Amino acid sequence: MGETTSGDPLFELRAETSISATPAVVYAIVTDLTRSAEWSVECIGGQWISGAPGAVGSVFRGNNVRAEDVVAWAPVVRGTWSTESEVVAAEPERLFSWAMRTKAGQRQDSIWSYLLEPTDDGCLLVHHFRMGKATEGIVGITEDMDAAAKRRFFAEWSAKLAGDLAATLDRIKVVIEKE
């Protein structure tokens, strides 16, 4: 189960929140991935390792941490680890997206995005995640699972991701509205 037979993505989730700040202010903050530790559930920091920060083609190395109880029965990475991602869209005040990279530096079909839409009192911020084909990490996690375990894993991981998206937006809202 690394690809779906229907052509549907393995994961496609989104959460949204209204923020009392302009799209320009929100965009400037969420595209500064070095600040991710202020709002991310798993990212505890990181740095740009190539390209201009926030520009398409730039690469960011994120440092992450995951608790032991997250989908505890599955062989997911726990403790600390790092990832690399490449900016794939950067449209000021509108869209910022990055793709997770393989250990060899190739883009994967795993895209995280922030979409911004102006509102009368600020903006709507949408956090979106889509994984079409299983990433290197998901393949490693599920390779020894039978079909029932894979279904269970994908259901539980989807719920975890949905919670992470919502929590991230809640934290971003607090950070921005305090500034």
List keywords for this structure.
single chain; 179 residues; alpha+beta; Alpha-D-Glucose-1,6-Bisphosphate, Chain A, domain 4; 7-stranded antiparallel β-sheet; 3 helices
In words, what does this structure look like?
- This protein is of the alpha+beta class.
- It has a domain of 115 residues: 2-Layer Sandwich (Alpha-D-Glucose-1,6-Bisphosphate, Chain A, domain 4).
- The chain has three helices and seven strands, in the order βαββββββαα.
- It has a seven-stranded antiparallel sheet with strand order 1-7-6-5-4-3-2, with helices on one face.
- The N terminus is likely disordered.
Strand residues, percent: 35-45%
User: For this structure, what is the CATH class of the domain at 11-33 and 87-178?
Assistant: Alpha Beta
Q: How confident overall, as mean pLDDT?
A: 94
CATH homologous superfamily identity of the domain at 11-33 and 87-178: START domain
The helix-and-strand class reads: alpha+beta
What is the CATH third-level topology name of the domain at 11-33 and 87-178? Alpha-D-Glucose-1,6-Bisphosphate, Chain A, domain 4
CA-based shape: globular
Largest sheet: 7 strands, antiparallel
What would CATH call the architecture of the domain at 11-33 and 87-178? 2-Layer Sandwich
Number of helices: 3
Strand element count = 7
Helix percent reads 25-40%
Unreliable stretches (pLDDT < 50, length at least 5) are 1-5
For the termini, the CA-CA separation is 44 Å
Order of helices and strands: EHEEEEEEHH
Radius of gyration: 16 Å
Please state how the strands of the largest beta sheet are arranged side by side: 1-7-6-5-4-3-2
